[in-house]
Specification:
globular; 5-stranded antiparallel sheet
């Protein structure tokens, strides 16, 4: 292998891989380090993809009990084969990871080293591969090492598992305590409760999904509380975790008293932290803090030739944001810092709950804090033709609109297939589309996206009344 490359990338996830592909397509030489040995990162192997595989199986399993609504008799005897679910998960992960590596290996200027690596200066990488130490000089370096689960200082926390471990569980759990009601905790409760697991959610804050529009989060919280397989305790502080021969016991403070719950497994999912450990940042003079690696508007670190993207910079921890940032890094390496990071609108976020949640742009609370003169309105799915046909008429679409300009500043969806419907909304917010423009757009009938056009017409009629 050459001891010199144009760009070295540490981290083969949704930030590092697209950056490598882009640079290779422009004729640059790239060396990619990934300690797991497989491309895809946390999203593919420990996060969004395996969890969605589980959720898809759970959703289809649950739908069998609803077939009578569609005039289909399936009988009462159906079950889920968890071993098959795990096999399917591994097959999908390996296919996606292998496909990513195959795409990169089409370029002769690409080198993959499946090992841990760290900075040894502003343009030098140190690594240990097959028992031998190596060094690599690079004109530019991209750090894309992602994030790790945050482990809070709770007595007995070593008895809990993280979301990464949950996604490798070898059987369907009878019961589970979930510490944290963010997207990971809500998705865990969604998929396992559908399979029959008794889930107990304990959240320190006053409501679930604190980073989601309050009205949307409130709708979901009420639905969770209506589920006999889910108990939700908000404003609850976990005190300790202990165990006996068969179960874990969690003690927590709630409404002035100490309560106790028991379960087969305790899941801790109270957030993630940038993965900066062992990267050699101090030695290379790269500035960072507890929030992540510090970067400028070009995603350049305090060292001129070193860039960083994705969860490791601690901004928006989404795979799609990591990909965008990785490409910004790559473009700036090619152009000499001409592409500025553009967060003029917050990127779309997803929660694969039941029903799904998707959002982009400003929330109602955020516009109030900014003293913006806005109006908010909802389109309920209970009146939507497509949702009624699919027996999925729960939830709504909500717009946050500037009262003066009629520009749509935020779109929030809780309902069927929100993860796909949000794509139009993301474009609406990014391009600052007005109610007039959206109302004048012909949406197909019957479709779930049709509600956006209807909502625009309704809001326009009220505002201009």
């Amino acid at each position: 292998m050459s001891k010199h490359v144009d760009t070295a990338i540490i981290g083969g996830g949704p930030g590092g891989v697209p950056a490598a592909l882009f640079l290779l397509s422009k004729g640059k030489s790239v060396c990619l380090f990934e300690k797991s040995g497989h491309l895809g990162g946390t999203c593919l192997f420990e996060g969004c993809i395996p969890s969605k595989i589980f959720i898809e199986s759970a959703k289809r399993f649950t739908s069998l009990g609803k077939m009578a609504h569609f005039g289909i008799e399936v009988g009462s005897k159906f079950s889920i084969n968890w071993d098959k679910v795990l096999e399917r998960k591994e097959d999908i992960l390996m296919r996606r990871s292998g496909g990513a590596l195959a795409n990169l290996q089409k370029f002769p200027e690409f080198t993959f080293i499946p090992c841990e690596a760290k900075l040894a200066g502003s343009n030098m990488i140190e690594y240990l591969y097959d028992g031998e130490k190596g060094t690599l000089e690079a004109k530019n370096i991209i750090l894309a090492t992602g994030s790790v689960s945050f482990i809070p200082p709770i007595e007995g926390i070593n008895l809990a598992i993280t979301s990464e471990e949950l996604l490798s569980i070898d059987h369907i759990l009878e019961s589970m305590v979930i510490i944290g009601a963010g997207p990971i905790g809500i998705e865990a409760a969604t998929m396992f409760s559908q399979l029959g697991t008794k889930c107990i959610i304990i959240e320190m804050l006053e409501r679930v999904l604190s980073n989601v529009d309050a009205e949307v989060a409130g709708f979901l919280e009420e639905k969770l509380k209506d589920d006999e397989r889910i108990n939700v305790f908000t404003a609850g502080k976990v005190v300790s975790i202990s165990e006996d021969s068969t179960q874990k016991e969690v003690k927590f403070e709630h409404k002035g008293e100490v309560k106790s719950v028991k379960a087969e497994v305790v899941l801790v999912c109270v957030g993630r932290r940038p993965n900066v450990k062992g990267l050699g940042l101090e030695e290379a003079g790269v500035e960072f803090d507890s929030k992540g690696i510090k970067v400028n508007e070009f995603l350049q670190t305090s060292q001129e030739g070193i860039y960083a993207c994705g969860d490791v910079i601690g901004r928006y921890m989404y795979a799609h944001t990591s990909t965008y940032e990785g490409l910004v890094c790559a473009k700036n390496i090619l152009t000499g810092n001409r592409v500025k990071l553009n967060y003029s609108y917050p990127p779309a976020g997803l929660v694969f709950s039941e029903p799904e949640i998707a959002a982009c742009g400003l929330t109602e609370d955020e516009v109030k804090k900014q003293n913006l003169d806005c109006v908010c309105e909802k389109y309920p799915y209970k009146i939507d033709a497509r949702a009624q046909v699919a027996e999925s008429a729960e939830g709504f679409i909500k717009f946050v609109v500037d009262k003066k300009t009629h520009k749509i500043l935020g779109a929030h969806i809780i309902g069927p297939d929100a993860s796909n419907t949000i794509s139009e909304a993301a474009l609406i917010v990014k391009l600052a589309v007005t109610l007039e423009q959206l109302a004048d757009t012909i949406h197909p009938h019957p479709s779930l996206s049709e509600g956006m056009g209807i909502l625009a017409k309704q809001m326009l009629a009220k505002i201009t009344r």
